[in-house]
Amino acid sequence: IGAVNADAHPSLGSKYGVQGFPTIKIFGFDKSNPKPYNGARSADAITDAAMKAVREMVEDRKSGKKRGGGGGGQSRKEEKSSSDDVVTLTDSNFRELVLEGKETWFVEFYAPWCGHCKNLAPQWARAATEVKDKTEGTIKLGALDATVHQATAQQYGIRGYPTIKIFKQNEKSSPIDYDGSRDSSGIVNKAMEYYVENIDPPTIYELVSQEVFDENCGTHLCILAFLPDIADDGKDGRNRYIDLLKSLGDRFKKQRWGWAWLPANANPELEKSLKVGGSGYPPPQALVALNKKKDVYALYMGAFSDDGLGPFLNQLTYGRSRLSTHTLSEGKLPEVKTREPWDGKDAPPVFNIIFLMEFVDEDLSDFKWDDEL
Question: Is the entire prediction scored with pTM above 0.90?
C-alpha cells in the first residue's frame, strides 16, 4: 500500500486520470490498467479488496493471461462483447431513446480510431453496469460513433473525442458537458449525484413488528432510533425527533439505508441486546447503526440533535474515523414484539389523588383501602 502526493507529482496524477482526493487505485496483474477502488474507506474493507486483487492476480497468472500493452485500450467492438449495458446510439434512435426517454443519459461521442476513446471504453462499460444496478435503470450510459452518425454529433457541436454530455431528466434540450474523472469510479459518482436529485427520501418507519424490521434491516444497513416515552416529551417532542430523522434521511438518502424508530421500553430485550438504555431518554446511546448481514452495529453516544447525529452518519458514509462497533451477541437479535403503532396523540393524563388530612373532619383511623377497591 502506497501514497502519492498528487499536488507534488501532478504528472503522475494526470496519467491515471485522478481528479478528486483521495482516489485509490489497485495496480494488480495488469499494471497498465489499474482498477479504481470503490469500496468503504475502512481498514477492513481495504484489506478485503487487497486480498481479492491478490487472488485475481494469481488466477490470471495460472490461466496464462497476458498483461495489457502500451495503453492502446480495447476497441468499442471488443468492449461491447464484455458488457451489454452501454447502449449503442445512432442518428435513428437518439431522439427516441435519449431525448424522449424518461431517463437521465450520459452519452459518449467517440471515434473508432481515437486512442483516448479506446482507453475510456472499459471504464465506460464498467460504469454502465454499476450505474444501472445502483440507479435501478433510471440513469443510462450510451455511446455514439460520431464519425458515422454525424448529424447527431454536429447537432451538439462535437469537435473532439471522446466528448461526454449529460442529458438530464426533464432538461434534455440543454445537455451539460461532463467534466469529471474519466475512470469508472468518477463516472459512477457523477451519475449518483444526478440520481440522488430525483429519488424520494426514505420513509421513517415505526418499528412495530418483526416484519417491519426485516424489510428495513434484513439486507442492508439500517438506522434505529430509540425515542423518549410519550409521557416524557409528549406529542410535540416526539414529532420533533421524527422530523429530525426525516431531515437526516433526506440528507443521506443516497446511502439507501433503512430507517426506523421505537419508543423507550417498547422492546426491552432489543434494547438490552443493543446496549441501549439507562437513565432518561434519549440516552447516550439513543441511535444504532445496524448491519445485520455482518452482525455488527455502532452506537451513537451524544446529543440527539442534527449537530451530533450528522457527523456520526458522515462517519458511516465515508469511514473517515473509527467508529466503536460491537458484535451481536450470538449473532442474532431477539424478535421484535408486535404492538400497536403510536396514534399520534399525547399520553393520557395521570391524575393523582391527594388527601388533605387537615380538611377532613371524619375520623379515618379505621379506614382500609381494601374495603374500597
Answer: no
